[in-house]
Design a protein that fits this description.
Blueprint: H1 2-5, H2 11-19, H3 23-35, H4 41-60, H5 76-99, H6 119-139
Helix pairs in contact: 3-4, 3-5, 4-5
């Protein structure tokens, strides 16, 4: 890849832009899968498959497909945000129509007990935090 990246002004930006084709779809799947109980497996798969054409539309469409205002040239971070939002909408529509608005039976029920920690863990976590603060204070310049 190095010889191919030699003619590019900023190789890191190139890598980020093309990583941004896949990562917004993965983010959308994780967010809805973790925080929306109605998300289904089919919705996640369709979202993953649809996110790549959506991302490629934002990436490639403004570069000569048409002079229409439908093909706008936007920064790649905004492209990633729009791709994630549109993918979430697709996942929500597919999941909603599949289960007719009911929670998915494979969804994990969250309760306060699931997030409860013990006193040994709490003391250990606090000790690690104190050590990190001390290290930052000692080496920060």
């Amino acid at each position: 890849m190095a010889p191919l990246l030699g003619g590019i002004d900023q190789a890191f930006q190139f890598i980020q832009e093309y990583t941004g084709v896949v990562s917004p779809g993965i983010l959308a799947i994780f967010i809805l899968g973790l925080f929306w109980k109605k998300t289904t497996n089919k919705g996640a798969i369709v979202g993953a498959l649809v996110s790549i054409p959506i991302a490629m539309y934002f990436k490639v469409a403004p570069k000569g497909w048409s002079t229409s205002s439908l093909f706008v040239n936007i920064p790649f971070l905004d492209q990633m945000a729009y791709t994630a939002i549109l993918t979430m909408i697709v996942i929500a529509i597919v999941s909603w129509t599949q289960n007719k608005g009911r929670d998915d039976e494979k969804g994990i029920t969250l309760s306060k007990q699931l997030f409860k920690t013990g006193p040994v863990f709490n003391i250990g976590a606090f000790a690690v935090m104190i050590v990190l603060v001390a290290l930052y204070a000692a080496f920060w310049k």
